[in-house]
Amino acid sequence: MEDGDDDGIISQKVRVEEEVEAYPTETVDLRCEFIDRGGRTKLTQVSWIWEPIDGQRDNIAVYHPTYGQSFPNPSFKDRVVFLHNTLENPSIRISKLKMSDTGRYTCEYATYPSGNEQGTTTLIMLAKPKNSVNVVTVQAETKSVVVATCEAMDGKPAATIKWLGSVGGNHTTTNTTNGPDGTVTVRSEYRLVPTAADNGREVTCMVEQKTQERPWAQTVQLSVEYPPSVSIEGYDNNWYVGRSDAVLLCMASGNPVPTTITWTAASGAMPDTVEVSGNKLTVRKVDDAVNTTFICEVKNKHGASRHQITTIVIEALEDPSSGGVVAGAVIGSLLALLLVIALIAVLLTRSRRQQRRGFPSSGDSIATGSGSNGGDYGNKARLLFSGTGNNSSKNGTGANNNGPIYTYREGCDATGTLTEKANDFHHHHLLHPAVGNPPSAHDILLSGEVDEVERRKFDLDDSMEEEYDRFGGGNMLPPAYHVHRGHGGEEELDVYLDDDMESQRDGSVISRTAIYV
Question: Rounded to two decimals, what is the model's pTM?
Answer without folding.
Answer: 0.51
